[in-house]
C-alpha cells in the first residue's frame, strides 16, 4: 500500500493544498500518517483567516510530489472517512469546489460516513413552560447546547440561529411559538393559536417556510402535535403530517403538507382498525413519535398505540406490553442506530429496549430485547448528586441514542434535572447538562447540509471545476 506524509501549503483563494510524497509500505492505510492528513484537512477548513500569513513556498521536485488536487476522488473520500465527525467533514468539504463535489456526488460515501460517525447532538430545545409571567410577552422556545469539547460542533452552534430570531422578527404573531417536532435539521413550530406554522433551519439561519393550517382540521386536531418528515438524500424537501380524530364517529384521518407543492392534502376519514372498546382513558396522549416512516400515538390508558404508515397512509392499532402501562413508567418510540424501530422505557433507574418481532403465528409484537439498571453509571457521572433523585425519565430517542432526565417524586423545580444521553449500542451513559425539566424536550441533531447532498444552489460545481 501507499504511505502518505503530509505538509500544508498555500494555494490561492479557494483552498490550502497538501503536498504528498508517496512511499511503499505494507502498513494499513488507517495509520498515523493518514490521520495526519485528516488533521491537516480539518485545520485547512478551520484556519482560513486572512490575517494568517501564508507559509513560505518551498521548491518541489515535480517527479516525486503531487498536490491533493491530483488525488482521485476515491482516495480523497477514504481520507474524509477518517475525519472525527460530521461538523469537521462539513468544514473540510466546503474548503473548495473539488472537495465539495467529491462528497456531494457520492451517496455511497455518505452512507459509509453515517455508519461510522452518527450525526452529533448539538443541543436540546425546550418549549416554553406554559403561561409566561408577562401576558403581553410572546413565549419562544429555548435552546441549551451540549457541553462537548469538539471545536467544530461548537462553531456550528455559534454560527447558527438557535435563538430563532427569524420568528421573533415576524410581525403579527402575539402568542409566541411552540415546537411540534424537530427532525432532519429542521424545527417545526406553530404559533399559540396554531393558525400559522413554520419550518426553520437554525444552522442555515433562515426560516424555510411559513404556512397556514387548515381551519376545519384544527377543530379535530386540538392537542395533537404535528409531525415532521424529512429525507436524508433530499434535505430541501419535507412533509408535515397532522392526524385528526373525530371521537363522535370513531374516525381518524391524516392531513399532509408538502413543501414541493406548498399545499395541504386531506386524506379521507377512516374507521380506526382494531379500535379498543370505549372506556376511560381511551383518548390519545398529545405527544407524537416516529421511527422509519411510521408515526405513533399512544392511548392515555397506555394499553394501545395508533400507528400510521406514511408510505401507504394506512392506520393500525397495536396492543402494548403490560409493563408499559405502569404509571411510573415513561417510554418513547424511536430508532436504533440501524434505523430499526424501538421502544425505550424507564422505570426507576432501569432502562429497557423493546424491538418489533414476528412470532411463530405470524403476528408482529413488541418484544423485550434488554433491560439494564443504571445506578452504577449514574453514580459515575453524577456522583453524590444522584441521591437527590429516585428515577430517570425517557424524553426522546434519536438515531440509537436515548435522552433521559433525572427526576424525583416531588418534581420540585428547586432541584433541576440532569439531562443525560445513553447509547443503545454500547449502553454507555454520558452527562449533558443540568436544567429545570418543565416542558417538552426536542433534541437537535446536526444533519447534512444540502450543499453536500447532491448539487444544490450556489455550491453546485460548474463545468470545468
UniProtKB/TrEMBL annotation:
**Annotated InterPro entries:** AT5G49610-like_b-prop, F-box-like_dom_sf, F-box_dom
* Alphabetized Pfam families for the sequence: Beta-prop_AT5G49610-like, F-box-like
Gene3D superfamilies to which the protein is assigned, alphabetical: 1.20.1280.50
Q: Which SUPFAM superfamilies match?
A: F-box domain
* Domain F-box: from-to ranges: 71-112
The UniProt entry's coiled-coil ranges are none
CDD domains named in the record: F-box_SF
According to the record, the residues making up region (Disordered) are: 45-65
- Transmembrane parts of this sequence: none
**Which PANTHER family is this protein grouped with?**
F-BOX DOMAIN CONTAINING PROTEIN-RELATED
Q: What is this protein called?
A: F-box domain-containing protein
